Automatic annotation (TrEMBL), chains A, B:
Residues 42-221 form the DJ-1/PfpI domain. Residues 1-24 form the signal peptide. This is Transcriptional regulator GlxA family with amidase domain. Pfam families: DJ-1_PfpI. Keywords: Signal. InterPro entries: Class_I_gatase-like, DJ-1/PfpI, INH-QAR.
Length: 273, 273
């Protein structure tokens, strides 16, 4: 009986799965091989107390995009200190950083937030964990990364706050977890209420935890095209949410503030409330 | 200047975050303390080649629910072999299982799927990784877990297939990744096209990778109530998707099959196509 089940399984799997398999192969032999020389490398930065999902949801999107594209994109976990075991926040499991963050390597550097009590100053609070990360050599490395024109810096959740605390988001459009938006502004960034914000092609930030999926899907589409993004989306049974905000096109009228937008042809005064 | 920024930050964080902090504390001193004696324990099962997100998205939802409820729910990573480092699929990072899966412990046991090539029989294919997991002592342990009336078994993605391969889903309603639905049926389960399926309160299955979030949120609401589920949802900036399917209420007419539903008062024949 067990053997029969095994046979049925083999048949079923072969039959059912032939289609995606064939697709993957087609992709591999067409687009991916010619892109291999310029494959995109993603470094995901771990620090003590990092948030598991902030880091690993994008990690898995990039890894699957690599699988579907014949490694046109590669991803690794890094830390400012180099290869080491990095504990996640809330007494969560540790992850092994494989290498030292290299700000001179072209590609994408993604900074997650911290996991912990969302408020207060206790040792296990998010504000404290971010402050501690700011005091490490990560700050100098990220400063170098911002100077590298071949690098896109991406953030998820508290990752934006960490960069802002490092003084790297002055007058840059960005988003973070809703809880941290006022702090983001206090650190000199221009907070934008969107799930994903692209300040310019080299700075992409995401909101709360699960927005990391949307950040990664946006970057996969931008770098590898919509077919790879769609394939991973289907595999993960996820649909991206929200418009990726950019300072382009017509600016909407800000009715709440009673001010007019800068777009031409808009009325000079706001309608009466 | 740095000091001033530090001050601004402290102020901003204190002011902004006082509200959530106060809420958390209220919860802690009200509901949670009386529930502490019957806190719910979640065991998330790791096996060689497991999918990171399948395991860690629910992990983090349960961990945050614990944080917001004063540990009314606790979560740990386990393996069939006990405390060990377990490699994830697609050459991903390893996670440390903290303990051996205990099928006699009441609570929730969550089984993730595998990460790898979605088809084929290569060493790094999902079908192969699941087959290998099936050959471990995990199968006997899960059989025990199914007999324990104090245990809810939950699955994400290929986790359902793994249980089905173990012969544990005979005639049970379940869902898995869309790619594996036919295989799920071949192994004797009744596949249901929903994001989350509750066969009975003791068996809850999820579809592809990111449905693990919805599985965990459903269980958090069921066990701890909607206020905790909502708090975590807000923190993670996620909205649960889809109806949790159960074999209750009126059964919809199956127009595609040209058959009538069993619900009373429905027409005996299907409308012409």
């Amino acid at each position: 009986m067990k053997r029969m089940l095994g046979l049925i399984m083999s048949f079923a799997l072969v039959i059912i799965l032939v289609a995606p398999s064939a697709n993957a192969k087609t992709t591999k032999s067409n687009d991916a091989s010619k892109d291999k020389s310029k494959s995109i490398h993603v470094q995901i930065v771990l620090f003590d107390g990092f948030d598991l999902l902030d880091a690993l949801a994008p990690y898995e999107v990039f890894a699957a995009a690599g699988m579907y594209s014949g490694e046109a994109i590669t991803v690794e976990l890094v830390s400012a200190e180099g290869k080491r075991s990095v504990p996640s926040g809330m007494n969560g499991p540790s992850l092994e950083a494989e290498a030292k963050l290299d700000p001179n390597r072209s590609g994408i550097i993604l900074v997650p937030g911290a996991a912990g009590k969302p408020a207060g100053n206790s040792e296990d609070s998010v504000p404290n964990l971010l402050r501690q990360a700011k005091e490490t050599s990560l700050t100098a490395l990220m400063r170098q990364a911002f100077k590298n024109k071949e690098v896109t810096v991406a953030t998820v959740c508290g990752g934006s706050l960490l960069l802002a605390m490092q003084g790297l988001l002055k007058d840059r459009y960005a988003v973070t977890n809703a809880i941290g938006m006022a702090a983001l502004k206090a650190f000199g960034a221009i907070p934008i209420d969107a799930r994903v914000v692209e300040d310019d092609p080299r700075l992409v930030s995401g909101g709360g935890v699960t927005s990391g999926l949307d950040v990664a899907f946006h970057l996969v589409e931008r770098e590898l095209g919509p077919r790879i993004a769609n394939a991973v989306e289907k595999l993960f049974e996820y649909e991206r949410r929200g418009t990726v905000w950019r300072a382009e096109g017509i600016e909407p009228i800000d009715f709440a503030a009673g001010q007019t937008a800068s777009a031409k042809g808009q009325p000079a005064t706001s309608p009466a409330k």
